[in-house]
């Protein structure tokens, strides 16, 4: 069975976050698909922007951040779902 676009994006996003996380105090805490990235401080503001850029490039889709709720940004599960269901970048 082929993974959904959101699932494929999620696997790539998890690897990306593991390589770019900045939370030295919680570095031993594993980041999962449902880890609250904002509450745990896994990424700094630049890292979060870089993650959004990575997701846009990887998915080929763009997201207007003004259309999102804070809850949409909290976990990789919700972020990947948003990007997997967004309009293709060339449609805007």
From TrEMBL:
<dbReference type="Pfam" id="PF00550">
    <property type="entry name" value="PP-binding"/>
</dbReference>
<protein>
    <submittedName>
        <fullName>Phosphopantetheine binding protein</fullName>
    </submittedName>
</protein>
<dbReference type="InterPro" id="IPR009081">
    <property type="entry name" value="PP-bd_ACP"/>
</dbReference>
<dbReference type="InterPro" id="IPR036736">
    <property type="entry name" value="ACP-like_sf"/>
</dbReference>
<feature type="domain" description="Carrier">
    <location>
        <begin position="29"/>
        <end position="80"/>
    </location>
</feature>
